Amino acid sequence: LSGRLSLRELCGYRAGDKGDIANVAIFADDDETYALIVREVTADRVKEHFGAMVQGRVDRYEAANVRALNFVMQGALGGGGPRSLRADSLGKTLGGALVRMEIDVPDHLQDRRRPRPDVTWADQILFVHERPR
Amino acid sequence: MPDAIRPRPVRIAGGQGFYGDTPAAVDALLGDGIDYLCLEALAELTLAILQKDRQRDESRGYTRDLPAYLARALPFVVDGRTKIVTNAGGINPTAAAHAAIETARQLGMTGITIATVVGDDLLARLSTLYQQHGQALTHLDTGAAFDTFPGAPLFAAAYLGARPIADALAQGADVVITGRVADASLFLGPLAHAHGWAWDDWDRLAAGILVGHLLECSGQSVGGNYSGDWWALPHPWDLPYPIATVEANGTAVISKPAGSGGRVSTDTLRHQLLYEVHDPARYLSPDVVADFTSARFEDLPDDRVRITDVRGTPATDTYKLLLASHAGWAGEARVAFSWPDAYEKAKATAAILVKRVEMAGLPVDEWHFEYWGVDALGGPTAHVGVDPTCEPPECVLRVAWRCEDQRTAGLVGRELVPLTLSAPPAGFTGAGRGAGSATELLSIWPTLVDKAVVDAEVRVVLQEVPS
Asked: Could you say which of B76, B80, B248, B402 would form a disulfide bridge with B7 (CB–CB 3.0 to 4.6 Å)?
């Protein structure tokens, strides 16, 4: 038995740039989830997920010691930082874009979902400065 | 070995992660007691910015926040507590050293020794390297041959390694200023010097590079840009910068200043471990090929993580070399639209602008359209239109364009102005800086160059701050 979950529920992420190449790493919290993403999140699926945003090849590397997969995407930044017309010319947000991907997750892993943010502290700080609307 | 004769661990900190980072962050690091303060100021984009700076003024080309950092750190240097290593020299380390000496002199911090590492700037030597030394200078990513290089190179910066830094420290430098030394090597330099690591002790060099990589982006290893429970980090407005305590055998403990916010955990560190990395089993640094997949991470109490077992293999015989060329001029503008039909209005306005620019006879080499609030960042991954009933409450059109010359790029933006009253309803340009002045674009050309031909010209220059 399984259901669909977006990677956002299961993984951390960080993206970086080198020239016109972006890399996105995703991080699993436990060995079972890591085995799942190793199986499900292939280089081909990532290439397909990004469509026209990534012009070139996607390669995948494994770092099992930190339960991470690293995707290296060629032609991903509109020519590279100093040349790109994109607002996000360094691809900082590509990690979030990758974890939108949905994968099949077995039922016994469905409870591994990461918690959603609680920014009550931010509301408390901002409250004083908000004018009544 | 009894503690008494074991070499003291070295405490090293990452006090800067980019040009424009906050100098105030180094106070907590210096107060916590560190042997070396490393200030990493460069990125590919930074070199492009510094190139434009140097084009305007020959005495520029280094990161100009260096004096602000020195003003905070030099009192600790004068006391002999801390030494500073920085690549703030950018593409003009000699000018940076001049500014550093001037800063120290004005603060009355005389007698300290400032070292400058030069030889990374290959611009003047480039044609000789290509024609006489057999350097192919092939584009590293595309495989393009150097004879197709577009125009004249604007800068040529080789990513030097840790050795000249260690040499400078061995010669008594208190402050070491370099140009384009690889980020992580900036940290390996002092570690190799302090522990006397041999330059073929690959595992220890790899450990130093891994530590450097974890520290080089300041806040990014202690909770900055952290995708875990970022909302639960203590005092995120007071994110500290990281410190490593490194033993002679390469074992390192990453920590942060006592009482600061943020977090040090295996999870925060693994985010940084793979940042801007390609093959993590073969992280190519000038000094060693480090295997980041070999490292063991162990969470300790009180925001500390121990890292052991890092493995390395021999360095390659080339340096990375970054060239840049002029790539035209860009302009951009933003227009905001409200519900209803915000996305459709934004698209229509973009199309109207394209037609108006065509009618005006202004040649545009490339258009780029982003719909903020819809898919500007996510592109195809945002699945626009999957649920047609889900309509964005607002949408900001960001349009950017590239033209061959600066004047045309400016005139294109002007075609947007009349749309204030003559376009789909209720758009306004207050959402951005509007059609500002055109900016110059640079293309970068990463390549490789033989170490031997570069090293022949690498020099360490020592200067004492005069009274």
From this structure: B248
B44:A18 CB<8 A = yes
Q: Where are the alpha helices (DSSP H) in B89-200?
A: 93-106, 126-131, 163-170, 185-195
**pLDDT confidence of residue B434:** 47
Say yes or no: ipTM exceeds 0.85: yes
- With H, G, I as helix, E, B as strand and everything else as coil, classify residue B401: strand
Of B226, B274, B443, the CB nearest to A83: B443
B374-406 pLDDT, tens per residue? 999 999 998 887 777 788 999 999 999 999 999
Cross-chain residue pair A63–B293, CB shorter than 8 Å: yes
Model confidence pLDDT, tens digit, residues B342-376: 999 999 999 999 999 999 999 999 999 999 999 99
Burial class (CB in 10 A: 0-12, 13-18, 19+), B462: middle
Return the closest-CA partner of residue B183 out of B208, B153, B154, B200. Answer: B208
Return the number of other C-beta atoms located less than 10 Å from residue B143's C-beta. 7
Angle between helices B202-215 and B185-195 (to 10 degrees): 130
What span, in angstroms and rounded, lies between the C-alpha atoms of B367 and B403? 9
- Cis check: omega of the bond before B164, within 30 degrees of 0: no
